[in-house]
Design brief:
It contains 17 helices and 6 strands. The chain has 408 residues and is mostly helical.
């Protein structure tokens, strides 16, 4: 009976137009974002001009880069913040701007006019032949005075963060994460060996693939979940089901699990394309790629997203209706996307969509791993809890207002 019900629910979902539209959207998104050609990992060479950037712990570099960011925003008379994940431009009044000016002058030991001259000089030096400048991308090299203390710097940033409010670039975690320095050859080799020995190359690509899948799976399953929950009303079968001797848990459980499975299967199939490409790249590096490891990433990283989005969809649809579920999930998705937009490599926290938008970075991933595990367990657990609450509400309606009681 249980297997029969599960199969019936799976068949009804799999033959619906909504299901194939959702699968098509997922496939199209991955094809366009990941593409047919993955960025090829290569072994660092001592003759390379650069080996990339790495987060720095050098206090002077942290100060130089953070004060440089502050000067750039002061100069443009606009400060970018991300409260609740959404961008919000902040414009300070004259007195507040004067406070920032004093901070910059004290840190540099120069007047604002001298700082502006230095800024203009750096701007001109970074212009190409066509007249385009890249100063904003490469960051202003702030002229920090030799006697500037790190303790004063921390106080300055705390002061600016209070002025700008939540989500600025000047909270301690934010400016530490943003401060970088060039990788050395030794660091690049250590990173490469981690990719070869621990990731078997395929794991390095799996993280980036999961990043893209997480974005689309954080939103589209809600449409399928709402459709599944509204199936009875559309088919005018609600009263028939209410009269049958099938428990609410068994009925909705079959729907939930079958929908989860029907989303996980195409996710695995679609991810096979970049997975095979990763295996080919591993072979070119004379490394035995691990496709099983690739799919372990896919399941461990993405299944909790599916569980949560469907759980939320089931719960809100049963409580308020399908439109409400879609609106709630869109808002939640937008908050998750924007909250991690400032940290695309190792960004997670309590965001539904943990980010790792770069191939490799094994060292950073190891630092991020524990947070990722707790993040995934949290959303999987909340998703299952929301599903159980949906069952309670469904059973309440089904039994004339008696929670989990027997049909009369």
């Amino acid at each position: 009976m249980r297997v029969h019900l599960f199969g019936k629910e799976a068949k009804l979902t799999a033959t619906s137009l909504t299901y194939w539209l959702v699968v098509g959207i997922i496939g199209f998104f991955i094809m366009t974002q990941v593409g047919m050609d993955l960025t090829v990992i290569r072994k660092p060479d001592k003759t390379d001009e650069t080996y990339g950037m790495v987060q720095t712990k050098d206090k002077k570099r942290i100060q130089v880069q953070t004060y440089g960011t502050l000067y750039s925003e002061y100069h443009s008379d606009g400060y970018g913040t991300y409260p609740f994940g959404f961008y919000k431009g902040v414009k300070l009044d004259e007195q507040e701007q004067q406070h920032v000016r004093q901070i910059l002058e004290r840190a540099s030991g120069q007047s604002m006019s001298a700082l502006e001259a230095d800024y203009s000089e750096q701007l001109l030096s970074k212009m190409d032949a066509s007249g385009n400048d890249y100063l904003e991308e490469s960051n202003y090299e702030f002229p920090l005075k030799d006697t500037a203390s790190y303790q004063q710097f921390e106080q300055d940033m705390m002061s600016v963060a209070e002025l700008l409010g939540k989500g600025s670039s000047y909270g301690k975690e934010d400016y530490l994460a943003a401060a970088t320095e060039p990788k050395t050859y030794e660091q690049a080799m250590e990173e490469y060996q981690g990719i070869v020995d621990k990731d078997r190359v395929t794991g390095a690509y799996a993280r980036m693939v999961c990043d893209y899948f997480g974005i689309i799976l954080g939103i589209v399953p809600v449409f399928l979940g709402a459709t599944v929950m509204l199936r009875d009303k559309r088919g005018q079968a609600e009263q028939v089901i209410h009269s049958k001797a099938v428990s609410s848990m068994r009925l909705l459980g079959s729907r939930y699990l079958s929908t989860v499975l029907l989303l996980l299967i195409p996710t695995l199939v679609i991810s096979l394309m970049p997975g095979i490409q990763a295996m080919v790249i591993a072979d070119k590096l004379n490394v035995a790629g691990d496709l099983l490891l690739f799919f372990q990433y896919i399941i461990g990283w993405l299944l909790p997203t599916i569980l949560f989005v469907l759980g939320l969809s089931f719960f809100v649809t049963e409580l308020f209706g399908g439109i409400a579920a879609i609106v709630v999930q869109i808002i939640f998705w937008l908050v998750s996307i924007f909250s991690s937009s400032s940290n695309l490599i190792g960004g997670g926290g309590l965001s539904l969509i943990p980010r790792f938008n770069k191939v490799g970075e094994r060292v950073l991933f190891e630092q991020f791993f524990e947070k990722l595990v707790w993040n995934r367990l949290f959303f999987a657990g909340i998703g299952i809890l929301l599903f159980l609450l949906a069952v309670v509400i469904y059973d309440y309606k089904r039994n004339g207002g008696r929670l989990l009681g027997k049909s009369r």
